[in-house]
Amino acid sequence: MNTMLLRKSVLGIAGLAFAGGLAAGPLHATAAHAETPVQGKPVAVTVQADKPDNTKLIPHGVQGQQSHIDLNDEQTANAKAIIAATKKAGLPERAAVISIATSLQESKLENLGHLGDANDHDSLGLFQQRPSSGWGTPEQITDPEYSTTAFLKGLRQVDGWQDMPLTQAAQTVQVSAYPDAYAQWEQQAADLVAQHWNS
Questions:
Q1: Is 124 helix (H, G, I), strand (E, B) or coil?
Q2: CB atoms closer than 10 angstroms to residue 159
Q3: How far is CA 46 from its chain centroid?
Q4: pTM to 2 decimal places
Q5: pLDDT tens digits along 76-98
Q6: CB within 8 A of 99, min separation 6: which ones?
Q7: Reported confidence tier of residue 2, pLDDT bands at 50, 70, 90
Q8: Nearest of 195, 55, 30 to residue 22 by alpha carbon
Q9: CA distance 72 to 60
Q10: Among the ranges given (61-65, 134-138, 181-185), the one the predictor scored with the smallest mean pLDDT
Q11: What is the set of domains in the chain, with CATH numbers?
């Protein structure tokens, strides 16, 4: 092995070790730079710390087998609307993960109107909320910001929701006939929050 190749390998490993050490540092740091001379040229390692921390997004780890769907532009826009409403409500990233996972289960992030015979009673919108159960008018429930805010209001009323497994927190708000179904969407929801929280 020639000396130049060995030097690059050692410096590459040192750079990764340095970056790994900074990633565990304070969340609010904007960037860190390491300068290691290589033949007179500095090598910069930048760590971006403005993305949500995965331990905050999935504090209990995912539970059970995970599902995933490819999202179209409308579904992505609805995920972004849920994130925006969560931020506007002053709630953390975990609330957005719970909200998006709930919507993935309830409507696949589609803002559903009345589905006729296929409808579950009078369920509507991203969270399949029911006007007859006091969630709001059909017009309100089919507004992504309103429906997310209504879901988050229910979530806030759940004592200790921040420390609950996702499916328990979602089920306490939604009272679904399939309470464990929310868990399968936790990873995709966390990925969406990580991708769009700061966009």
A1: strand
A2: 9
A3: 24
A4: 0.71
A5: 999 999 999 999 999 999 999 99
A6: 82, 85, 86, 148, 151, 152, 155, 189
A7: very low
A8: 30
A9: 29
A10: 61-65
A11: 3-43 (no CATH), 54-196 (1.10.530)
